[in-house]
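Let us practice reading a record.
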Amino acid sequence: MSDSRVIIGAVAGAFGVKGEVRLKSFCAEPEAIADYVPLTTDRGEVFPSVRLTGRTSGALTARLDGIATKEQADALKGTQLYAERSRLPDLPEDEYYHADLIGLPVFDSGGEEIGRVHAIYDHGAGDLLEIKRKGGKPLLLPFTKAVVPTVDLAAGRLVADPPEESE
């Protein structure tokens, strides 16, 4: 994936029999996914427009250009959808796109590398960073100012102060 694209959603499967899809949006405002067209896939598919048609359990329902049958919609299940970074809004200070954090090294306050950001989870109570440590089990850190006081995207690094029992 190039740095100019950001994953903003995924197709969760077909909805009905006429080509609609269940669309999982990763946007802060789920309906905003339709504002960032054209959406692309890793397979080179391009969807110039997304027409939202409703909501279902945990997802939006939508029509994607060129998808007219249940079989075509089923074939897209699990497909990640990307938007050009230039189409996305600038974020306020202290907010970050997950794509900007994944893969960054994480250092402790003494300058020793703890590991790299492997994933970011949001279970409703705030984001958790999964840090992949070399040869060790993953470390989950709350993504708060107290635990991760420094995010330096220009230098490509985070500084964390993990609780003692996490190490």
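A brief commentary: The two ends are 32 Å apart (CA to CA).
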